[in-house]
Amino acid sequence: MNIYISGSMAYDRIMDFPGKFSDHILPDKIHILNVCFTVNGMVEKFGGTAGNIAYSLSLLGEKPIIIATIGKDYERYFEWLKKNNISTEGIKIVDEEFTACAYITTDKADNQITGFNPGAMKYQSGYEFKNPESKDSLIIIGPGNLQDMRKYAKIAKDRGIKCICDPGQSLTQWDGDSLTEWIDGSYMLITNDYELELIIKMTRIDKRRLLKMTKIIITTLSERGSLISTSEGDVQIPAVKISEILDPTGAGDAYRSGLIKGLAMGKDIETSAKMGAVAAAYAIERYGTQEHYFTYNEFVERYRSNFGEFG
């Protein structure tokens, strides 16, 4: 299967706050919020939705094509991608901008506050699909340049390419009508539970009606696993046992990688979602979004130890 990943390339600057955000936010003063969180330190890692998903897919033996932009400080990231056998052919370099950067602070309850500078992501990637064949292709459209997100969804629908809509942090940039049009005709909508409620509020379309616009809705639920929803009903997928929780950042992107690998192998959606849960577990056990490592055999063995026979 040809796998395309539209989204962001970013450097993540990750910080830990040694307390809980909720202890320092006064609900009755939220309209005049002025809070400073002093963190323990900061580390910089490779990140971005497209980069993260591509990384775990490469561990699973796939060769995805990233569709994104990157800034003038691209050399270190390109070296990392090449080291991991990930193509850079679909990545456009924007010489007048720095690469997008996320400033992520996590508290002791695993809550996160993120500041994001889009940098090169303000520009469209301008990727041209060379292969008109759509039968064996899939594209996941994650948070990135909004014009790209709209354009590639339209191309996918026009060509019959399986399209996974993954709006994530981009939701604040959409209006209800445009978001509805974007989701309509997609193969899958994937969000966390908060994002799904926001989509329902923005579009004024309930979940039952959304399932008439997209075939599958997957809702990730953190430590409670994930939920597969189709017109036939819901299936709960439990989370995988974790040896040690170090950093939840990037777990959602790893989940998407495992899910997509399952779809590429022709697995059913339940097995694919379980593969997503396994990939997410590896990410949670390491600090950063592209720091985990596993072989395919290790991945399959962990799947079996949590879910039984490998679909």
From TrEMBL:
Q: Which keywords, in A-to-Z order, does the entry hold?
A: Kinase, Transferase
Q: Which InterPro entries match?
A: Carboh/pur_kinase_PfkB_CS (IPR002173), PfkB_dom (IPR011611), Ribokinase-like (IPR029056)
Q: Name one GO molecular function term.
A: kinase activity
Carbohydrate kinase PfkB domain: which residues?
A: 38-291
| PANTHER family attached to this UniProt entry | RIBOKINASE, SUGAR KINASE
Q: What is the protein named?
A: Carbohydrate kinase family protein
Q: Which organism is it from?
A: hot springs metagenome
